[in-house]
Amino acid sequence: MNYTPLIRKLLAGEELNALERAELASFDADALIGEKDAVSRERDQLRTEHLSLKRSQRLQEVAKKYNCGDPDFLDYVAAKRNVDLDNEQAVGELLEEMRKNSPHCFYSRIQSGGGAVSAPSRPADRPEEPFEQDRIGRIAVRLAGIPEKSF
Length: 151
What we know:
Layout: H1 4-12, H2 18-25, H3 29-65, H4 71-80, H5 88-101, H6 135-144
């Protein structure tokens, strides 16, 4: 029940009816204070969880931007050094230092697969011959350069 109208009636000096008196008789201020404390604790817990989720999301963003494969370690180091994750300059400096001291926490910047990254360049005096890219084509090119012998 809402106790505000009852309190206003009492302050104004008005008479309370039997139902209102029974309600006030069952009123327990300690229970109300206990509920207030429980609600305050729940609010604080939710606020803490919200801040934790925001920090976790920011850590994921920073880790993705800098190719960091271990956001938990990044969180540990950032918390230990009191680095504000919203300060781009401080985060950049921290991650460059981490890249030097803990390179195992970062994804490598190499391309997958073997061989050269780009196609080898050809000398200008030797144009590409047909079928040179496959095995049979390379054999045909070699055979074309062998002089014929007459028997």
